[in-house]
Amino acid sequence: MRITAPRTLLRATVFAAAFAVSAVAFAEASPAGMWKTIDDSTGKPRGVIEITEKNGVYSGKLLKSLTETEGPAKVCDKCTDARKDQPIIGMTLLTGLRKTGDNEWSGGEILDPESGKLYKCKMSLADDGKKLNVRGFIGISLIGRTQTWERDR
Questions:
Q1: What is the mean pLDDT of residues 138-153?
Q2: What is the reported pTM?
Q3: Given 3.40.50.720, 3.10.310.70, 2.40.128.520, 3.90.1150.10, which CATH number is that of 30-151?
């Protein structure tokens, strides 16, 4: 006589655990973390942004530049708000983004520190959370451009 109940129970437990882990991983999809910004013209990394969440609102701060620069640290001399003449490294570039759907956040703004211009912003996770599509636009989303950032950590 063979006893198969323990083996069947083990299989069911392993399946349930795998399902629970994948469900938790899917439910925790978030843009929070470190991202390499990728220049949409050259395809090369430009900087590292840390996206954080506080009370359901996401923001992103430039931690470091990955482009070669000479001379003093760059400042946002074209900014027109409180960031005017402030160092770009350490500056908050993404603000006010809230979850609006599965793997989608919008309602915020993004600053282009080279031009000093503020754009409306939305973003969405792609490639199982390894990539983040960040779209800056004027008025409606059709008038803008998208960069795809890569998760750094």
A1: 90
A2: 0.79
A3: 2.40.128.520
